């Protein structure tokens, strides 16, 4: 369930993000005849052999596991398209190329359950991993530019998994900057600085006569030489 993962690491765990991604629509080619399925999320079907139809990813995976369909690879999961995206990502260090919001999770599910339906699966997987690494490097580089004057961060075309990783760090960072830049914190810092000044700068030392005939320094609290009164008493004796 959402929110049960460690709140200090991310808002959702990877499996929770993947669960959300299973609602993405993909195209399948059934090899069976089946009536329409009436689901809470919508109606899908009817299904006829060799006639493509669109269903949620979770349903496509379920039918694929039962050998009742093949899953068509999305248009963006081709070698040509991914090669173009990778080159554009490398050429634009400050921009993210548009990809499906759940491209990481969708590709993982397809590689796990429908690898035989993906053309050039090894090369496609390698390209997706390279794209992911380049994009994460951009995110890390961008986070290094955050300063105390940053009040918001806009990152366009990030995917769900990338947002899930970056968001908790960004929130804690901006909260820390806001806390240290707030008027209350500045006032507290000024008060601490004032107290430190008062402690370090005590002015000239002042001697106070003691009723017992000794001088007492106010800052060191140590006894010094006999007073004039005591000297007179000694000379009188």
UniProtKB/TrEMBL annotation:
Tree of life domain: Eukaryota
UniProt cross-references to InterPro entries, sorted A to Z: GINS_A, GINS_bundle-like_dom_sf, GINS_Psf2, PSF2_N
Gene Ontology biological process terms in this record: DNA replication
Keywords annotated in UniProt: DNA replication, Nucleus
Gene Ontology annotations for the cellular component aspect, listed alphabetically: nuclear chromosome
All copies of domain DNA replication complex GINS protein PSF2 N-terminal, residue ranges: 13-71
Annotated GINS subunit domain residues: 76-173
Any Pfam family hit: PSF2_N
Main location: nucleus
Places the protein is found: Nucleus
Subunit architecture: Component of the GINS complex.
Similarity annotation: Belongs to the GINS2/PSF2 family.
Protein name as catalogued: DNA replication complex GINS protein PSF2
Species of provenance: Zea mays
């Amino acid at each position: 369930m959402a929110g049960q993962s460690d709140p200090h690491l991310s808002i959702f765990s990877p499996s929770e993000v993947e669960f959300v991604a299973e609602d993405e629509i993909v195209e399948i080619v059934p090899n069976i005849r089946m009536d329409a399925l009436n689901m809470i999320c919508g109606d899908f079907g009817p299904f006829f052999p060799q006639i493509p139809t669109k269903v949620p990813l979770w349903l496509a995976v379920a039918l694929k596991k039962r050998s009742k369909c093949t899953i068509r690879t999305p248009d963006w999961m081709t070698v040509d398209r991914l090669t173009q995206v990778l080159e554009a990502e490398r050429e634009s260090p400050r921009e993210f190329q548009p990809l499906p919001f759940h491209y990481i999770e969708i590709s993982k599910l397809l590689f796990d359950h429908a690898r035989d339906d993906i053309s050039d699966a090894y090369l496609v997987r390698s390209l997706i991993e390279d794209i992911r690494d380049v994009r994460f490097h951009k995110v890390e580089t961008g986070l290094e530019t955050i300063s105390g004057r940053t009040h918001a961060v806009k990152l366009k075309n990030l995917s769900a998994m990338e947002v899930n990783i970056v968001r908790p760090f960004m929130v804690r960072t901006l909260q820390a900057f806001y806390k240290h830049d707030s008027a209350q914190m500045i006032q507290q810092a000024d008060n601490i600085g004032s107290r430190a000044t008062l402690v370090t700068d005590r002015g000239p030392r002042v001697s106070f006569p003691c009723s017992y005939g000794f001088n007492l320094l106010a800052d060191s609290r140590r006894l010094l030489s006999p007073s004039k009164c005591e000297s007179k008493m000694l000379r009188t004796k």
